[in-house]
């Protein structure tokens, strides 16, 4: 009976059984079990997992009434629909492992509740195709006798060779155990998924925690940087305030020491002298007609060259170029005034670029001492005071006139307006 039902399943609904080749190997023990198995072993409920992942149920009764409950996956509708087959079967052992099976009274039905959920157009297609399928299968089966081979039958397993394919069925006891195993596997899968989700949640929380710690650390770092920057600004402000206070103190002392000289100057020139002193420029009395500044415009110390100026320009330059030469002195004017003299514009009223006569006086009345170390000449005045002039050709307040100060001596030189020269301020 089992063989008959299995063969019927293979012919009627090929999608309802799951083919597994070589489930068990053929051996002498298998032959003996199959041969000695009584017919009662066939007449019970059997289960088989089909290609759609569902379990088909085959019920064989001793009176030959059989029922098959499975599923059909219709390609035209795209739905998996439960189907039920009822039929009668007779079987007879004709050889050791060969049974002759006959099918009669076959009837197919489908689950109408599931069929009702299919859209109308697809449902009609399914009904039509299913009716045609049922009629064609009845024509094939009615009156037909087929031979089928049972490979192994025991209390829990049934393997049939039908149409050149192996079909595997399990008993209800094994089916329930399989369900329990599947349930355990599903629980294990759920447990693993929960653990995975918990681990993922923990990982995300850990990343959030680290990101929050990093953000807070960054805020603390920025706050600390801001605090240090504020401290640095305050320290710089305090330093500058102290420097200004020290400059003011030294300026007051300088004013006291040079009281007689300052009293001879106008208030504007007095202010210029004090401000220049705060900038580091000190007027040195060499005992000449003018007092000479201790360093060039733009210098940081007496031996520095300082800024270079093209004659008639008020902005420093590093080299002359025709396109960049922009004198503010008209071509018909040969002398610098307060508006075109870099010394006046830098240090204030009263300071100016020396004239050729003042350069000549410096050369004539002062002793000279060359310093090869600093590349400069030290001029010592009649009163013993001195100033330092680096080697260079210096500007005068007259166009084309310059004054060179070099290691081999000093004197007037021809200086074009385009020459770049340092400026040493003086004041009467």
What do these coordinates show?
This protein has 428 residues and is an alpha+beta fold. The protein is built from nine helices and 19 strands. An eight-stranded antiparallel barrel has the order 1-2-3-4-5-6-7-8, surrounded by four helices. It has a three-stranded antiparallel beta sheet with strand order 9-10-19, with no helix packed on it. The protein has a three-stranded antiparallel beta sheet with strand order 12-13-14, covered by helices on one side. A hairpin with a 5-residue loop joins β1 and β2. α5 packs across α7. It is rod-shaped and about 150 Å long.
Quick summary of this structure?
The chain contains 9 helices and 19 strands.
Keywords:
428 residues, alpha+beta, 2 domains, eight-stranded antiparallel β-barrel, three-stranded antiparallel β-sheet, 9 helices, 19 strands, disordered N terminus
